[in-house]
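Allow me, if you will, to draw on your knowledge of protein folds for a short while. I have a record of one protein: its chain in single-letter code and its fold written as C-alpha cells. I should value your view on which stretches of the chain appear to form regular backbone elements. Thank you for your consideration; the sequence and its C-alpha cells are set out here:
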Amino acid sequence: MLFRYSSDERGRHIVKAVIYTKNEHNIDLSKIDSDALYVVSRLRDSGFTAYIVGGAVRDLIVGHTPKDFDIVTDATPSRIKKIFRNSRIIGRRFRLVHVIFGSKIFEVSTFRSTAEGSVGNSFGSIDEDVMRRDFSLNALYYDPSKEYVIDYVNGVKDIKKGIIRPVIPLDKIFVEDPVRMLRAVKYSATTGCRLPLFLKRKIRKSAYLLSPISPSRLTEELQKIINSGHAFEIVSKTLETDLYMYLQPTATAIMYSNREFEKNYLKNLKKLDEFTVANPDARLGEKLYFMIFDFISSLTDWNKEVESHSAAGEIYVKTWSECRSFVLPMNPQRTELEFAIRKVLKDLGVQMYTPKKSKKKPVSKKNSKKQS
C-alpha cells in the first residue's frame, strides 16, 4: 500500500490518498476494454494525466466485467478532440468528449473544480474532481500503466463493507442534483451495497426535489432502469424511499390503493428482468410491455370486449390515450409505446391488424423513357 501526501496549513505532511497496488486490489487487466486502454495510453503519450474512473473501477474491484468505461484527464475537451479524430464534443454547459470506436463510445471528461460546488463547469485538479463524485464507491481512479487504484475517500473499504456513502456533504448532494437519489438507489440494487439509515432517511425527506426535474431527464433515468436487468430491485427500493411517485405517479397511486395491482406490477418487473437478461438487444417496446400490461388489463373486462366484437381500431385509440397518461412523465418514443400497447392488446385477445404498406407499381421501361 502506498500513499499520496499533501501539506496542511502548517506545512505538515498529511495523507491525501491511499494507493492500492495490483496485489491489493486484484483487478484483472484483461477485463478492461482494449480501446479504453488505448484512449488512456494516447492521452498519456500526449503529455496528459488520464485514469479510468467511476463505476468501471468499482465493478473491476468486485470481479465484474464493466459494461462502460469512463475516463478522466487533465486535458481540456478541445485538446482531447485534437488527439482523437474519432471523437465529438457534447454538452453545452458541462462539456464532455465521446471517443467512438464502432458501436463503442468512451466518455472522456476533464477534471472539474469545486469552486462552483459539485455541478460547476470549471476545470480543476484530481484533488477537486474526486470531491465532486457522488458516492465513495464511484470515486476511485485506476491507472492501468502502473495498475494502481487511487483512493481519496475510502471507497475501496466501503465497497468491501458493502455500503453506499456520499462524498458530497449531505446538505448539498441532492439539492445540487436530485437525480443522485435515483443513482444511490440504483447502485444499492445493482451492487448489493446497502443504503445506511441516515442516507435512506435523507432521500425520503428530499424526494420532492425530483418534482421539477425535466421529463426528458426522468425518461432517460427510467429507460436505464428498464434496461438494467434489475428493474424489480430498483423499483422496489424507489417505492421504499418515496421516489417512484415522481417517476411513475399514476402507477404508484394505483399501487398504494390496490395491493393486488402492486403485487402483479412487481411480478411483471421480475419477468422484465428475465427477458432483458435473455434479450439485451431487444427493442424498448418489448420491455415497456411488462410495465403497462397490468394497467391495460385493469381498464375493462376484455373477455366481454372481445365477445362484443368492438372495433379494434377504436379500442386501440382509447387504450393509447389511457396508457399515454399512465406512463407520464416518461415520454418514450411513440413507436415503441405503440408496439407495447398493440402487443398487450393482442395477448388480451383483441385482433390487432398492422396496416400493410402500399406497394408502388414499378415504372415500365416505356414510361420511364417518356419521362426522361
